[in-house]
Structures are given as C-alpha cells and as structure tokens.
Amino acid sequence: MKKEQDSPEDLLLALPKGRVADEVLPLLRAAGIEPEAEFGRPGSRKLRFTTNVPGLEIIRVRSFDVATFVAFGAAQLGVAGSDVLMEFDYQEVYAPLDLRVARCRLVVAEPAELASSDDPDRWSHIRVATKYPEICRRHFAARGVQAECIKLNGAMELAPGLRLCRRIVDVVDTGRTLQANGLVEVEHIADCSARLIVNRSALKTRPESLGLWIERLRKVVDGA
Amino acid sequence: MKKEQDSPEDLLLALPKGRVADEVLPLLRAAGIEPEAEFGRPGSRKLRFTTNVPGLEIIRVRSFDVATFVAFGAAQLGVAGSDVLMEFDYQEVYAPLDLRVARCRLVVAEPAELASSDDPDRWSHIRVATKYPEICRRHFAARGVQAECIKLNGAMELAPGLRLCRRIVDVVDTGRTLQANGLVEVEHIADCSARLIVNRSALKTRPESLGLWIERLRKVVDGA
Questions:
Q1: Closest residue in B to A65 (Cα–Cα)
Q2: pLDDT tens, B155-183?
Q3: Domains and CATH numbers, chain A
Q4: In chain B, which stretches have pLDDT less than 70?
Q5: Model confidence, pTM
Q6: What letters, b where the CB count within 10 A reaches 16 and e where it falls short, cover A116-145?
Q7: How far is B180 from chain A, CA to nearest CA, in Å?
Q8: How many residue pairs bridge chain A and chain B with CB atoms within 8 Å of each other?
C-alpha cells in the first residue's frame, strides 16, 4: 500500500532479500527494531513493512538495488554487502559501520583442470563472467590484464563448463558451489560483509535521527 | 554436474526461470521435447537438465541471462522475452520465431494523481526507474526527451511512492501491480512475447539440427 504522504521525519530502511537479511535481522532486533510479522513470512510479496518504531519503515528490495534506493535518497538507511558497494561506488552512499555478518570472499575462479597448469601472473587477455562487471574491470585493469567482463545475473558457475568463458568473478561463502562445478579459487579480490549505509544528504539534514541508529547498531556490533 | 566433454553435435537450450518457462513448456512438449522430471520440481536448485531427446539438454537461467548465453554460443538455442532481446540487441542472436506466449506490454507509468494533469508530449527532462535502461534511453532519445534512466532489478513500482523518480518503464501483464501501487500507464513502448532464439554462428555450422527444432516449433505455434 502506498502512503499518501510521508512525514519529513519518517525514516526508511532498505534491506536486501535473502541471506543478508536473515543475518542482519538479529542485529536490528538487538538495536530495538522489530519489523511487523509479515516481514518474516516466507513467500510474502509485500515490499514495504512497518516496525515497532514509530516513523521507521522497512522496504525489502534486491541486494543490488539497496544501494540505489539509498544513493537517490528514496531510503535514508540501508544494509548492503560491501561487494554491492564496491560495484556501484555511489558518492552519495556513506557506509559508517561494518555489521560483520554475511561474510564472504570475492574471488576469481576457474576449472580445476585449467588451474593445475595456469599461472594468473601470465594472463594478458581473458574473458570473465560475473555479476560484478565494474569490480571485474577495475581489478584486472589494476593488474594490467585486459579482461572482457560478461555480466550475468546468476548461475555464473555454469559459464566455464559451457565455454562461455574460462574464468568467473563471484562471491564465495563455503565454496561448495564452486566445488560442485569443478571450479577452484585462483585469485582473491576482497573480503566482503554487510554494511550499514546512509544517504549523505540525509545525514547532513537529519544528523540526530540517523546518528541515533548508527550508534545503536555500533553498540550492538561492538558488543557481539 | 559438469559434463566432461560435450559432443560437437550436442545442443543446449537455455530457458528462463518463472512465468515464461511455464508458458513455453507445453510448446516444447508438443514439439517433442520433454525435460527430466527434476525440471518441474519447485525449489530445485539444479541448473542443467537432460531431456528425452538424446544430445539435447536444457539450462535454466535468469531471463536476462538467456540472451547472453545464446549470444556467446554457450547455448545454441534459447527462449527469451522480446523485452530482453530489445534491451541487449545482441548481433549474434537471431530470433526466427514468435512463440506467442508470455505476452506483456512495455510501458511508461506514473502515479495516477500526476497523470491527471501531466502531458507526456511536454516532457523535456525526466528521471525513470527501470529494469531496461537501454530500451528506456533509446525510447526517450527518439522522442527528444532527456531521460535519466536508473537501473533497478526489481520493485520498480516502489520507486515513485518513495520519490526515487516519478516515472517507471516496466513490463505489464494484467496491470494489477501498477494499480495496487497507484500507478497508471501513460505511454506504450512495445508489445512483448516469448521468442525462440538461435546463435547465428551455430545456425551456420549446424543448419540441419537447429533448423529441425525451429521448424517443429513453428508448426506447433502455427497449429496453436
């Protein structure tokens, strides 16, 4: 349901769907934010939720969209993986707090049989499938490797077996998906985790209300 | 499971997840292609499936990725919405057959209260949220409207209510999602439907095996 008019003091927190939200919810609860019951209902198609805090609502969007909603000031607060923040690099997004959950690694992987005789230091021109074309371009440009980065939205692990490319850049948690597809990590790009993000303009105009939530969550994370 | 070695005569058909696949499956069956039982199992995480046809396998990927897998020759055949084909405009993708299912419209929508006093012919500079930034840019450039197209991966219908933008470009089927969010169509960009797509190079090197499936599906569609 669309609200007719938001109060200028209302705050909107953008959360991503999936695993990150599951790991972040206990932190939000410890900081005093309890979403309405519908938020946790599997299969719910609702996108906007009230909370126990008057004037604080939550929207649930794709993980890649959280940073966009916050960058354009549609949400003042958000939770996004550092992989997403690296990919978009929005100037309007300020990430004051590492929530230290939803940890993963951003890596380059290739088929095990290729890796056994391959030396990444010798790459000059490669093709890579990835959800993160900007990170991919920057990483290989910094290494002096010319990389054709093909954007895929999912199922990266299929690409080398189908000869779309021989390498992928993806986030890895346990490594089981790579293993099941005969792939091994050959380069580490970054360690990632969920971050609290804030719209910079909103932080300037409403330092008290936003600062309150940053500080509450900082205490929760430091005490954890 | 990754196959060790595909025969050069093996064919791979890329299908999208979700509604398009549900509507296309009956056509594939009528043309003689029956995927293994696991294909229809809800919640299955499998990505690659055998069929009753020796040497013909199916991969299930995101709708935006079907065109990419076919463009790079990782799959020789695919089914993609014409919205996806318009967005990517890959030269290597040939779309010989309109499957006439999964029909929808690509439209510009805005809040009903804005539309009542708004004249699209007077737009000069607008901001639009969309899954289709390329279509959006081309559409408004052709109309002489300067459009800032913000890519979102989902939940477009939230954007106007949160003042991310006032207009969205999205595909519309029944129109219920727009209505539930207080939005109305103000411009029609294109009618869309599912298309059979083929990799152009594969069609040159394997005209018989690919031509067979194009013709079988053509007969099914013409008889429907």
A1: B152
A2: 999 999 998 999 999 999 999 999 999 99
A3: 11-102+193-223 (3.40.190.10), 104-191 (3.40.190.10)
A4: 1-8, 224
A5: 0.92
A6: eeeeeeebeebbbbbbbbebbbbbbeeeeb
A7: 7
A8: 87
